[in-house]
Structures are given as C-alpha cells and as structure tokens.
Amino acid sequence: MPETTRELLTSSGWKDLPFNVFRDGVTIHWIKPFDGDSPGVALLKYAAGASVPRHRHEGLETILVLEGTQSDEAGDYAKGTYIVNAAGTEHSVWSDTGCVVLIQWDRPVTILEG
C-alpha cells in the first residue's frame, strides 16, 4: 500500500476520496483492484440501512471497521474491530447506522441471494 494511502487511512483523509456505486446503498473506493494473482483491497461505505445479501467467501476476507458499525448474523462490529471471514463461510452484511470499512478479499465472493 503506498505511503499516501496509509496516511489517508489513519488520518481520516479517506473521507475525501472518490467512491463509486458498488451495490444499492454501498459505495466503493478501490485501493487495489483484483488482478487475478493478488487480493483486492478497497474501502466500502455503507449508507444507514444498507446491506449486502447473503454471500459465500471463495477466499479469505479481512475487514477493519474505520467508522460506524457493521453487522452480520454473528454480531455487531464497531469502529476499530478487525473481522476475519474464512474461505467457505457465508453471511449477509448490513449497517443500521452506516459505516466505512477497509476490506481485503483474496477472491471475489459469490452472491447467494438478492
């Protein structure tokens, strides 16, 4: 990750980065898109009430909550929480209040519903 990206993440400078539509109510800023050989890294911004439908992890996924609270069937994850979802696991994700997460996927997920 370039030094400027690290600085943006730790100083809240990410708030000024451009985000694009990812899903309804969820926007994305790619830090490093998937290239077939290495993981994708991005910021996801959930509007209050936004969700991602049930999906299966085809590779390891790690998440760091930067702002707000992200939730899944296992619980609520507040700012500063680090989440690890192993390959083969399934869940849906939502945020009642809105949140921003730093996410890294080894491989894209498979959407199972919605």
From TrEMBL:
SUPFAM superfamilies named among the record's database cross-references: RmlC-like cupins
Organism: Rhizobium sullae (Rhizobium hedysari)
Protein's name in the database: Allophanate hydrolase
ChrR-like cupin domain ranges (all copies): 15-103
InterPro entries according to UniProt: ChrR-like_cupin_dom (IPR025979), RmlC-like_jellyroll (IPR014710), RmlC_Cupin_sf (IPR011051)
Domain of life: Bacteria
Pfam families: Cupin_7 (PF12973)
Molecular function terms from GO: hydrolase activity
Keywords (A to Z) from UniProt: Hydrolase, Plasmid
